[in-house]
Amino acid sequence: MIKFVDHVNIVVSDLERSVFFYTQILGLRETRRAHLEGEWIETIMGLKGVVADVVYVQPPGGGPRVELLHFRSPEGAVLPQAALPNTQGLRHLAFQVEDVDEASRKLLEVGIKLLSAPCSIPGRTIRHPAGSKRLCYFRDPDGVLLEIAEYRTEVDGQ
After folding, report:
1. Are 137 and 121 in contact (CB under 8 A)?
2. Which end of the chain has a smaller Cβ tally under 10 Å, C or N?
3. Which residues contact residue 150 at a Cβ distance below 8 angstroms, ignoring those fewer than 6 apart?
4. Mean pLDDT score, 20-29
5. What predicted TM-score, i.e. pTM, was given to this entire model?
6. Helix, strand, coil distribution of the chain in percent, nearest 5
């Protein structure tokens, strides 16, 4: 039934700030912009009075788009508990990088706080066909939990 993941939607409080973060800091490329308004979007979302703007960004190597959506109306709620890694529902979005240590240094250089330094997943815990995995978490400007991950073909002694 499912062919592949088409996109992931992130509702943002400041569209241009988020576009800057995802394109200039993370290196995704903007592919399209649209204004959403009218009966069609209200029907799809089950909300009345929808007025929103969306920017699509995508990793340069391809893969699912990230849909950055800013609602002008109706205004949504900010739920601090939704930012916790153990809250039920969609919790984070992961991006694959060539070198997680270099990528994390670049994030730190521009003032992005990491939840931890890059860590390796013990090979005895999870074995990935692409090799060993190193990763770290950080947050976007609205507090959305993000991950950068690197897969290495060597086992790193684990």
Report:
1. no
2. N
3. 96, 97, 98, 99, 100, 103, 118, 133, 134, 135
4. 97
5. 0.87
6. 20, 35, 45
